[in-house]
């Protein structure tokens, strides 16, 4: 029984981080229907900001989190203006963004690889290798802090979307872009804002990832299926669904990794993506598409 509780704790702690990693991806798709395959590479860019902040100045990666989020949000504004804005009204916009963001992922990987090489790195604050002990159970401090901070950020995002005027506009745009525009919402401005928030969340996740996982520029290819699986399982565009799916799949992966083998742990996310697309493609919290 102790082993089961221990695995559950570790799975939930990592699930919080994965939820934050996927929440920006869900937000961007929900508002603009952008399938952002470059999102994991932007998370790694955020991890490098936190890493070099810690290495050069000794600033804790958690303290660097708002800095990484702000820098990546600014990059998000530039990316949207230069890459996505012009074709936003195209009927094939979502399909086009798959190719555009795939190319962006390659570009980001190349830039990061040229600047920092493909050496694996990890930020090493003292708590990253420490743990709380509760009898026979242990809770790694790094994973616990990262998981809790992730859930706090997602909670703050949810409150912002639910109660602020900008949040109303973002949710209106998510539900019906054309109707929101008819009601006076500046859809283009809201799209820029939502994209900036989504990429800012990638930067925030990167700060936490920097001491939870080792990373290098090409690492993002390992995370694409993982993030897509939690976003699809939760329901494309649903932040709540992304959180639930991330926690669920992380716990399942933790049990699979312990009882079957670490190699099969990652396969949990691939299999979940495959199964959900076959059985319930709209996900747990998504709406079933209407037949034409």
Write the layout of secondary structure elements.
Elements: H1 2-32, H2 39-57, H3 65-84, H4 93-116, E1 131-134, E2 137-140, H5 141-163, H6 165-175, H7 177-182, H8 187-212, H9 220-234, H10 239-259, H11 262-279
Antiparallel strand pairs: 1-2
Helix pairs in contact: 1-5, 1-8, 1-9, 1-10, 2-3, 2-4, 2-8, 2-9, 3-8, 5-6, 5-8, 6-8, 9-10, 9-11, 10-11
- Structural class by sheet pairing and helices: mainly alpha
- H/E topology pattern: HHHHEEHHHHHHH
Query: What best-fitting shape do the alpha-carbon axes yield?
Result: globular
Give the biggest beta sheet.
2 strands, antiparallel
> How much of the residues is beta strand, in percent?
under 5%
Number of helices: 11
Could you tell me the radius of gyration in angstroms? 19 Å
- The CA-CA distance between the termini, in Å, is 51 Å
Number of strands: 2
Helix content: over 70%
Overall mean pLDDT stands at 88
Strand order of the largest sheet: 1-2
Low-confidence stretches: none
Taken together, the total number of domains comes to 1
Summarize this, please?
By secondary structure, the chain is mainly alpha-helical. Helix content is 73%, strand content 3%.
